[in-house]
Amino acid sequence: MKIALVKTAFTVIFIREKVSTLFQQAVVDMATLIQENGIKELSKGTHGVVTNHGISTHSVASHMVPDHEYCETGEPQEPQPPCANSGQDAPVETTAEDEEETPEIDIMINNVVCSFSVKCHLNLRQIALNGVNVEFRRENGMVTMKLRRPYTTASIWSSGRITCTGATSEDQAKIAARRYARALQKLGFQVRFQNFRVVNVLGTCRMPFGIRIIAFSKRYKEADYEPELHPGVTYKLYNPKATLKIFSTGGVTITARSVSDVQSAVERIFPLVYEFRKPRTAADEELLRQKKAARPPPAPAPLTTDLCLVTLSDDETVEADADADAWE
């Protein structure tokens, strides 16, 4: 009897130790599965075993990829779709500083040269003696005359041909030319204003970046760079016909036949020099911040007068009709 009781006690102790060992093993397996798969509900067919069958993690579907794959930041990985249990995706806000600002290029017209004819012989000595704001240049065989408004200078030859310089627009150049013709008419000449045309336009602009002119001149055969003769690159355009002087600071000088050709030349040269732009320095970044700070705030949106449909109750409809009758 005692021997049977001792055997029963040893059996109970052995079973207890076996159960404890199995329980500890189950806890370890469960912790391993949670670490590999996150806090996810295991499918009923796995029985606590997760197999991968040799498939890499990046080729598995998104619902099969462990959660910790999305949280690792040690090595750059391919973008993965967000986890199913991560909640709503927060919208990504892009600020104006992150977006590259559209460059604004101001073209300044510095000089418009025009020519016209008065169709009569001019006595330069008589103009020099009786004219106002004139200068007789005997060595050149011409007389120069100046105006205050618009501030221009005319070169007058005895043949009746006149060249006017100093205007800042084509309309201003024509006004100055007619005033010179009127001044000559007051001096007693039979003047007829004919053959007016704009000969040359000089414009300048500044790119919002520096330019690597050496690399630019090597890239394009139309560019001519002689640093011993001129610090800028001479670039010739044939459509529109224009000549440009490009400097390393970003300044560009354009010579063309009209104001529209100057604008077209700047539009043509901008994508070419943009490829050879210099990186921004700290001073350029500070200047850009100052421009943004000095920029005026946006104007308020205009009030809209769009009509909207409003549903009224019976009492409100009666009151509205009464108010309409009162206005009538």
From TrEMBL:
What processes in GO biological process is this protein linked to?
DNA-templated transcription initiation
Can you say where in the cell this protein is located?
Cytoplasm; Nucleus
Q: Which residues form the signal peptide?
A: none
**Alphabetical keyword list:** Cytoplasm, DNA-binding, Nucleus, Transcription, Transcription regulation
Cite a GO CC annotation.
Answer: nucleus
Top-rank taxon, per record: Eukaryota
Tell me the GO molecular function terms.
Answer: DNA binding
Statement: the UniProt record of this protein carries the keyword DNA-binding: yes
What are the boundaries of the region Disordered? 69-101
Under the heading Pfam families, the entry gives:
TBP (PF00352)
Where are the annotated coiled coils located?
Answer: none
The UniProt family comment states:
Belongs to the TBP family.
Q: What is this protein called?
A: TATA box-binding protein-like 1
Source organism per UniProt: Parnassius apollo (Apollo butterfly)
